[in-house]
Every structure is written in C-alpha cells, then in structure tokens.
Amino acid sequence: MKNCLVVDDSKVIRKVARHILESLDLSVREAVDGQDALIQCEESSPDVVLLDWNMPVMSGMEFLQALSSARIETRPKVIFCTTENGIGHIKAAVEAGADEYVMKPFDRETLESKLAIVGVI
Ligand SMILES: [Mg+2]
Fold first, then answer.
1. Cα 12 to ligand 1 centre (Å)
2. CA 23 to chain CA centroid, nearest Å
3. What is the Å distance from ligand 1's center to 23 Cα?
4. Which domains does the chain have, with CATH numbers?
5. Are 46 and 75 in contact (CB under 8 A)?
6. How far, in Å, is the centroid of ligand 1 from the Cα of 34?
7. What residue stretches are annotated with the Response regulatory domain (predicted)?
8. Which pLDDT tens digit goes with each residue over 50-104?
9. Ligand 1 centroid distance, CA of 9 (Å)
10. Global pTM value
11. From the CA of 6, how far away is ligand 1's center (Å)?
12. Which of 87, 45, 90 shows the shortest CA–CA distance to 67?
C-alpha cells in the first residue's frame, strides 16, 4: 500500500484529505507543519507528500528547501496545495522541487488525477 503524508496546519483539511486518500487505497499519515513533516520523512519516507503552503513554524516552501538537503532514502513526490490567491506560488514551488500542484478546495477527482500524474496511483 502506498503511503501519503498530509501536511497542513488545518485539522479540517487534513481530515478531508485523509478521507479522500483512504478511499483511493492509500495509507495516510499527518503532519501539522513543515518541520513535523520533515522529521516524519526522515524517519520513514512516504511515497507522496500533500503539502500546504501557508503554515506556522515551517512553511511549504521552507519544507521543500529543507527536503532537498535532507537525509532520506527515497525522495517522495510532492503535490503542493494552493488557493486561487496563491497562484503566483506555483512557479516558485516547482522550482523548489514540487512535482505537481492542486487548488484548494480539492475534490476526490482532482486529487486522484494529480496522484496519477506523479505516478503514485
Ligand atoms: Mg495552512
């Protein structure tokens, strides 16, 4: 079973994402910010990270930068989540190593297609 790490400071978003991802037969872990996510990736690398942009402690961008120099066996695919207001982040995120992006609020169909694009499902 493939593993997805959901990184978001919103408990509601994490719950929604978990529900969708589990319905796609992925096993799900959660992180509350970039730092939490980085620690979890170093312990055991997930297949894919669903990454929020705006978070306290360590943002999505800071996480991407830290991930590129982190000691992990296999780099996870990264799908970052942005809002319509954050469309300007897409270029920066891709340059920092994100594989795909998804607009919030996302639904099952959108998330499924993005996971297929990065080759996780
Ligand atoms: Mg957030």
1. 11
2. 17
3. 23
4. 3-115 (3.40.50.2300)
5. no
6. 10
7. 3-119
8. 999 999 999 999 999 999 999 898 999 999 998 888 888 899 999 999 999 999 9
9. 5
10. 0.96
11. 12
12. 45
Give the whole-angstrom CA distance, residue 94 versus residue 50.
Answer: 14
What's the pLDDT tens digit per position in 9-45? 999 999 999 999 999 999 999 999 999 999 999 999 9
The amino acid at residue 12 is V
Report the candidate in 105, 74, 115, 97 with the shortest Cα–Cα distance to residue 8: 105
Q: How far is the CA of 53 from the centre of ligand 1 (A)?
A: 6
Task: Tell me 69's DSSP state.
Answer: T
What is the distance between the alpha carbons of residues 20 and 22, in angstroms, rounded to a whole number? 6
DSSP 8-state code for residue 58 = S
How far away, in angstroms, is 59 Cα from ligand 1 center? 8
**Rounded Cα–Cα distance for residues 17 and 111 (Å):** 9
